[in-house]
Amino acid sequence: MVDMLNKFFQNTRKPRGRPGKLMLICMNSGHAKLASWGFSHLHVNANSHILDIGCGGGANIAKMLKDSPGSIVDGIDYSEESVAFSQKINAFELGKRCNIRQGDVSCLPYPDRSLNLVTAFETIYFWPDLDAAFKEIKRVLQPGGTFFVCCELDNPDNTTWTDRIDGMTIYRGEDLKKRLLQIGFQSVDLHRHEKGWMCLEAVY
Ligand SMILES: C[S@@+](CC[C@H](N)C(=O)[O-])C[C@H]1O[C@@H](n2cnc3c(N)ncnc32)[C@H](O)[C@@H]1O
Q: Do 35 and 199 contact (CB within 8 A), yes or no?
């Protein structure tokens, strides 16, 4: 039973097949409160070009499409299942204000300085080379653009999930802030929730 559950939890890192689809449904509802808190700290300028990396079930793309009607909101995820699910959820704007593709954070299919905002909800834990990913995000951001990170977990000493999910790493907000400033982001605002959640807004 424990083995079966642990196998199912691997779908948080990369949703696959029917269990992956079930996980995406769970994540869209289970992450809703975290995302709503995160969005309360994020200012989205009108007419922006936004990319949500590790878009999972696509709920955050749907929220940004709704809240920012003049903006283009794209998504990328390396899981085929996540891409299909996100496309379905956002079918009403697909090919108009929204483009959702399969791809990896290490190689974003966007030209230099082309995006205003990049978001990453509950996904940086699974990026194998965090600094390289941050540099790639910096490459695609326009000067003055924002990289927004939102995580439910920011205490590496709590191994409840890292013991169960292969290749998962939890980062402290302060560590992320230091890395982003070293890479060349101009300012980083870090916010914490009493439940241990954290989000940060890094301006390039
Ligand atoms: C825990 S889910 C979070 C999904 C969604 N952002 C949310 O908040 O509900 C993590 C997602 O990140 C994706 N992901 C993990 N590593 C990735 C990478 N290197 N490049 C692109 N997507 C990645 C996974 O496939 C998965 O859909």
A: no
Distance from residue 113's CA to the centre of ligand 1 (Å): 23
The domain ranges of the chain are: 2-203
Tokens of residue 72, six digits: 């283009």
> Cα of 68 to ligand 1 centre, how many Å?
22
Q: Which phi-psi region, left, alpha or beta, contains residue 97 (left: φ > 0; alpha: ψ -120 to 50)?
A: alpha
Tell me the CA–centroid distance for residue 56 and ligand 1, in Å: 5
Distance between CA 45 and CA 18 in Å, rounded? Answer: 37
User: What CA–CA distance (Å, rounded) separates 77 from 81?
Assistant: 9
Q: What is the mean pLDDT of residues 85-97?
A: 97
CATH of domain 2-203: 3.40.50.150
Predicted model pTM: 0.97
Q: Which atom of ligand 1 is nearest to the CA of 28?
A: 9
From 77, 80, 131, the mutation candidate for ligand 1 (largest count of ligand atoms within 8 A of CB) is: 77
| Residue 20 pLDDT class (50, 70, 90 cuts) | very high
